[in-house]
Design goal:
This protein is 41% helix and 15% strand. The longest helix has 26 residues, at 106-131. With 235 residues, the protein is α/β, with parallel strands linked by helices. It is globular, with a radius of gyration of 17 Å. The chain has one domain (7-228): Rossmann fold (3-Layer(aba) Sandwich), CATH 3.40.50.720. The protein has a seven-stranded parallel sheet with strand order 3-2-1-4-5-6-7, sandwiched between helices. The relative contact order is 0.14.
Length: 235
Protein backbone atom coordinates (compact mmCIF):
# COMPACT_ATOMS: atom_id res chain seq x y z
CA UNK A 1 0.00 0.00 0.00
CA UNK A 2 1.18 3.51 -0.82
CA UNK A 3 2.87 5.56 1.88
CA UNK A 4 0.41 8.29 0.90
CA UNK A 5 -2.52 6.21 2.15
CA UNK A 6 -4.12 7.81 5.23
CA UNK A 7 -3.39 6.37 8.66
CA UNK A 8 -5.77 5.97 11.61
CA UNK A 9 -5.06 5.00 15.22
CA UNK A 10 -7.97 3.53 17.19
CA UNK A 11 -7.92 2.83 20.92
CA UNK A 12 -9.92 -0.16 22.11
CA UNK A 13 -9.85 -1.35 18.53
CA UNK A 14 -10.01 -5.13 18.90
CA UNK A 15 -13.77 -5.43 19.49
CA UNK A 16 -17.08 -3.61 19.28
CA UNK A 17 -17.23 -0.16 17.74
CA UNK A 18 -13.44 0.11 17.54
CA UNK A 19 -13.06 -3.11 15.60
CA UNK A 20 -15.96 -2.27 13.28
CA UNK A 21 -14.41 1.13 12.58
CA UNK A 22 -11.02 -0.44 11.90
CA UNK A 23 -12.57 -2.83 9.38
CA UNK A 24 -14.41 -0.03 7.61
CA UNK A 25 -11.33 2.16 7.38
CA UNK A 26 -9.25 -0.74 6.08
CA UNK A 27 -11.89 -1.27 3.41
CA UNK A 28 -11.63 2.42 2.52
CA UNK A 29 -7.90 2.06 1.91
CA UNK A 30 -6.58 3.37 5.21
CA UNK A 31 -3.69 1.92 7.11
CA UNK A 32 -4.86 1.28 10.65
CA UNK A 33 -3.27 0.83 14.07
CA UNK A 34 -5.41 -0.52 16.91
CA UNK A 35 -4.65 -0.68 20.60
CA UNK A 36 -6.12 -2.83 23.36
CA UNK A 37 -5.29 -4.29 26.73
CA UNK A 38 -5.33 -7.92 25.55
CA UNK A 39 -2.58 -9.03 23.19
CA UNK A 40 -4.45 -12.24 22.45
CA UNK A 41 -7.62 -10.44 21.46
CA UNK A 42 -5.63 -8.11 19.21
CA UNK A 43 -3.97 -11.08 17.51
CA UNK A 44 -7.35 -12.74 16.97
CA UNK A 45 -8.76 -9.55 15.51
CA UNK A 46 -5.82 -9.23 13.10
CA UNK A 47 -6.31 -12.81 11.96
CA UNK A 48 -10.03 -12.29 11.43
CA UNK A 49 -9.50 -9.22 9.26
CA UNK A 50 -6.99 -10.97 7.05
CA UNK A 51 -5.24 -7.62 6.68
CA UNK A 52 -1.62 -7.52 5.58
CA UNK A 53 1.03 -6.35 8.07
CA UNK A 54 1.64 -3.23 6.00
CA UNK A 55 -1.97 -2.16 6.51
CA UNK A 56 -2.81 -3.22 10.08
CA UNK A 57 -0.72 -2.70 13.21
CA UNK A 58 -1.79 -4.05 16.61
CA UNK A 59 -0.38 -2.47 19.76
CA UNK A 60 -1.10 -3.89 23.23
CA UNK A 61 -1.45 -1.23 25.91
CA UNK A 62 -3.70 0.56 28.38
CA UNK A 63 -5.49 3.57 26.86
CA UNK A 64 -5.23 5.39 30.21
CA UNK A 65 -1.49 4.86 30.64
CA UNK A 66 0.59 7.88 29.68
CA UNK A 67 3.64 5.94 28.49
CA UNK A 68 1.58 3.33 26.64
CA UNK A 69 -0.34 5.96 24.69
CA UNK A 70 2.82 7.88 23.84
CA UNK A 71 4.42 4.65 22.63
CA UNK A 72 1.38 3.73 20.53
CA UNK A 73 1.39 7.07 18.74
CA UNK A 74 5.16 6.92 18.21
CA UNK A 75 5.01 3.38 16.86
CA UNK A 76 2.15 4.22 14.51
CA UNK A 77 3.98 7.20 13.02
CA UNK A 78 7.27 5.31 12.91
CA UNK A 79 5.66 2.33 11.12
CA UNK A 80 3.39 4.15 8.68
CA UNK A 81 5.16 7.50 8.35
CA UNK A 82 2.18 9.68 9.20
CA UNK A 83 -1.00 9.97 11.25
CA UNK A 84 -4.24 11.38 9.85
CA UNK A 85 -6.96 10.27 12.27
CA UNK A 86 -7.23 9.18 15.87
CA UNK A 87 -10.35 7.54 17.27
CA UNK A 88 -10.61 7.60 21.07
CA UNK A 89 -12.89 4.61 21.45
CA UNK A 90 -11.62 2.74 24.53
CA UNK A 91 -14.09 2.93 27.38
CA UNK A 92 -16.50 0.96 29.53
CA UNK A 93 -19.17 1.26 32.22
CA UNK A 94 -19.42 -0.17 35.72
CA UNK A 95 -23.21 -0.18 35.34
CA UNK A 96 -23.87 1.10 38.84
CA UNK A 97 -24.83 4.35 40.51
CA UNK A 98 -23.77 6.86 43.12
CA UNK A 99 -26.25 5.38 45.58
CA UNK A 100 -25.59 1.66 45.33
CA UNK A 101 -22.37 1.31 43.31
CA UNK A 102 -18.94 0.06 44.32
CA UNK A 103 -16.49 2.99 44.35
CA UNK A 104 -13.60 0.56 43.99
CA UNK A 105 -14.48 0.18 40.33
CA UNK A 106 -14.97 3.83 39.47
CA UNK A 107 -11.35 4.97 39.35
CA UNK A 108 -10.33 2.78 36.42
CA UNK A 109 -13.50 3.65 34.51
CA UNK A 110 -12.95 7.38 34.96
CA UNK A 111 -9.31 7.11 33.91
CA UNK A 112 -10.11 5.01 30.85
CA UNK A 113 -13.08 7.08 29.72
CA UNK A 114 -11.74 10.57 30.42
CA UNK A 115 -7.97 10.54 30.83
CA UNK A 116 -7.58 8.08 27.93
CA UNK A 117 -8.97 10.40 25.22
CA UNK A 118 -7.05 13.35 26.67
CA UNK A 119 -3.78 11.42 26.50
CA UNK A 120 -4.46 10.35 22.92
CA UNK A 121 -5.13 13.93 21.86
CA UNK A 122 -2.03 15.21 23.67
CA UNK A 123 0.37 12.73 22.10
CA UNK A 124 -1.18 12.64 18.62
CA UNK A 125 -1.58 16.38 18.15
CA UNK A 126 1.83 17.18 16.61
CA UNK A 127 1.33 14.55 13.88
CA UNK A 128 -2.29 15.58 13.33
CA UNK A 129 -1.31 19.21 12.91
CA UNK A 130 1.18 18.15 10.27
CA UNK A 131 -1.43 16.13 8.36
CA UNK A 132 -4.30 18.52 9.14
CA UNK A 133 -6.09 15.42 10.34
CA UNK A 134 -9.08 14.53 12.47
CA UNK A 135 -9.84 13.59 16.06
CA UNK A 136 -12.89 11.41 16.73
CA UNK A 137 -14.13 10.89 20.27
CA UNK A 138 -16.64 8.15 21.00
CA UNK A 139 -18.97 9.62 23.57
CA UNK A 140 -22.49 8.52 24.44
CA UNK A 141 -26.06 9.67 24.61
CA UNK A 142 -25.36 9.42 28.35
CA UNK A 143 -23.08 12.41 27.80
CA UNK A 144 -25.78 14.62 26.30
CA UNK A 145 -28.73 13.73 28.59
CA UNK A 146 -28.85 13.43 32.37
CA UNK A 147 -29.32 10.01 33.98
CA UNK A 148 -29.95 9.78 37.75
CA UNK A 149 -26.81 8.74 39.65
CA UNK A 150 -24.98 7.57 36.54
CA UNK A 151 -21.19 7.71 37.05
CA UNK A 152 -20.55 6.40 33.54
CA UNK A 153 -22.73 9.20 32.21
CA UNK A 154 -20.63 11.73 34.09
CA UNK A 155 -17.51 10.43 32.33
CA UNK A 156 -19.23 10.81 28.97
CA UNK A 157 -20.31 14.35 29.83
CA UNK A 158 -16.59 14.96 30.34
CA UNK A 159 -15.91 13.56 26.86
CA UNK A 160 -18.57 15.88 25.42
CA UNK A 161 -16.78 18.83 26.99
CA UNK A 162 -13.38 17.54 25.94
CA UNK A 163 -14.50 17.37 22.32
CA UNK A 164 -15.58 21.02 22.17
CA UNK A 165 -12.62 22.25 24.23
CA UNK A 166 -10.31 20.42 21.86
CA UNK A 167 -12.08 21.73 18.76
CA UNK A 168 -11.65 25.31 19.94
CA UNK A 169 -7.97 24.64 20.58
CA UNK A 170 -7.09 23.04 17.23
CA UNK A 171 -9.49 24.38 14.61
CA UNK A 172 -7.01 27.11 13.72
CA UNK A 173 -4.47 24.38 12.94
CA UNK A 174 -6.79 22.76 10.41
CA UNK A 175 -7.54 19.77 12.64
CA UNK A 176 -11.13 18.54 12.77
CA UNK A 177 -12.84 17.22 15.91
CA UNK A 178 -15.92 15.02 15.93
CA UNK A 179 -17.92 13.70 18.87
CA UNK A 180 -19.91 10.56 18.03
CA UNK A 181 -22.53 9.97 20.73
CA UNK A 182 -24.25 6.60 20.30
CA UNK A 183 -27.40 5.47 22.00
CA UNK A 184 -27.94 1.79 22.75
CA UNK A 185 -25.49 -0.37 20.83
CA UNK A 186 -25.41 -4.15 21.10
CA UNK A 187 -21.78 -4.85 22.00
CA UNK A 188 -19.80 -6.43 24.83
CA UNK A 189 -20.38 -3.13 26.68
CA UNK A 190 -23.52 -4.73 28.12
CA UNK A 191 -22.01 -8.08 29.16
CA UNK A 192 -21.58 -7.16 32.82
CA UNK A 193 -25.11 -5.75 32.90
CA UNK A 194 -26.62 -9.05 31.82
CA UNK A 195 -27.09 -8.13 28.18
CA UNK A 196 -28.27 -5.24 26.06
CA UNK A 197 -31.62 -3.58 26.85
CA UNK A 198 -34.71 -5.04 25.23
CA UNK A 199 -35.93 -3.43 22.05
CA UNK A 200 -34.16 -2.20 18.97
CA UNK A 201 -30.44 -1.60 19.45
CA UNK A 202 -27.84 -0.29 17.03
CA UNK A 203 -24.93 -2.40 15.84
CA UNK A 204 -21.26 -1.58 16.14
CA UNK A 205 -21.13 -1.45 12.35
CA UNK A 206 -23.81 1.24 12.24
CA UNK A 207 -21.82 3.45 14.60
CA UNK A 208 -18.68 2.74 12.57
CA UNK A 209 -20.56 4.07 9.54
CA UNK A 210 -20.98 7.41 11.33
CA UNK A 211 -17.32 7.49 12.37
CA UNK A 212 -16.09 6.79 8.87
CA UNK A 213 -18.54 9.27 7.35
CA UNK A 214 -17.06 11.99 9.57
CA UNK A 215 -13.48 10.92 8.82
CA UNK A 216 -14.03 10.93 5.05
CA UNK A 217 -15.46 14.45 4.87
CA UNK A 218 -13.64 16.70 2.40
CA UNK A 219 -10.80 18.90 3.61
CA UNK A 220 -12.23 22.00 5.22
CA UNK A 221 -15.39 20.25 6.47
CA UNK A 222 -15.45 19.69 10.23
CA UNK A 223 -18.39 17.61 11.52
CA UNK A 224 -18.56 18.35 15.24
CA UNK A 225 -21.34 16.37 16.97
CA UNK A 226 -23.24 13.31 15.78
CA UNK A 227 -25.87 11.75 18.07
CA UNK A 228 -27.08 8.35 16.85
CA UNK A 229 -29.96 6.55 18.56
CA UNK A 230 -31.93 3.49 17.53
CA UNK A 231 -35.50 4.31 16.61
CA UNK A 232 -37.54 3.91 19.76
CA UNK A 233 -34.93 5.15 22.24
CA UNK A 234 -36.67 8.14 23.75
CA UNK A 235 -33.79 9.51 25.85
Amino acid sequence: MSNASPVALITGGSSGIGAATARRLLAEGHRVAVTGRGAGRLEKFAEETGAKPDTLLTIPGDAADHEAVAAAVHRTVETFGRLDTVVANAGYATHDSLADGDPAGWRDMVLTNVLGPALLIHHALPALKESRGRIVLIGSVAGVVYTPGNIYGATKWAVTGLAENTRRMVTGDGVGVTLIAPGRVETAFWDEAGGAPEGLNLTAEQIADSVVWAVLQPAGVDVNTVVVRPTGQAV
